[in-house]
Amino acid sequence: VRAAAAKAAAKAQAAGAGATRTTGRFELCGGLAYELLQPGKGQPASVGKAVQLRYEGRLAQNARRFDKGVMKFRLGRGEVIQGWDEGVKGMLQGERRRLLVPSKMGYGQKGAPPFVPRNADLIFDVELLQC
After folding, report:
1. Among the options 67, 73, 121, 125, which is catalytic?
2. Is 107 a catalytic site residue?
3. How does pLDDT run across 63-84, given as a tens digit for each residue?
4. Whole-angstrom Cα distance, residue 92 to residue 76?
5. Residue ranges of the chain whose pLDDT lies below 50
6. Residue 55 annotated to the active site
7. Quick one: CA torsion of 27, 96, 106, 70, rounded to 10 degrees?
8. Residue 25's pLDDT is what?
């Protein structure tokens, strides 16, 4: 499993995700991090591509789920929160990640009432279904 995770991280770095391995997590820009839950196969998700994700969102503070479903969007176009645009880059089809999204890359000072309070750090379990 560790070898597969290391191999997936190397592919993500080569795809421009900019990840560096530190203590079992992959640190990205702006405090965003992810944990690799399951490696994938195929071409990496890249900016401009239409991607489809299965996701579950929880508040980092208490792990309360606030949303789940399937979403399709164009990566890197600002159609979703910044934590998704950056955290999905480099994923391979079938890959599962746990995105650890700081408030500033999520819903920030406004939150997403009534379920996401202001300045809330978020956790998203995501699976890339299509890219």
Report:
1. 67
2. yes
3. 999 999 999 999 999 999 999 9
4. 16
5. 1-23
6. yes
7. 170
8. 81
Q: For residue 120, what pLDDT is reported?
A: 98
Would you say 54 and 127 are in contact if contact means Cβ atoms under 8 Å apart? yes
* Residue 59 contacts residue 122 (beta carbons within 8 Å): yes
Residue 108 Rama label (left phi>0; alpha psi -120 to 50; beta): left
pLDDT at residue number 4: 45
- Beta-carbon contacts of 104 under 8 Å, excluding residues fewer than 6 positions away, are 30, 31
Question: Catalytic one among 26, 34, 85, 107?
Answer: 107
Query: How many percent of the chain have pLDDT more than 90?
Result: 79
User: Considering 34, 66, 85, 125, which one is annotated as catalytic?
Assistant: 66
- 67 belongs to the catalytic site: yes
DSSP string spanning 103-124? Answer: GGGTTTTT-BTTTB-TT--EEE
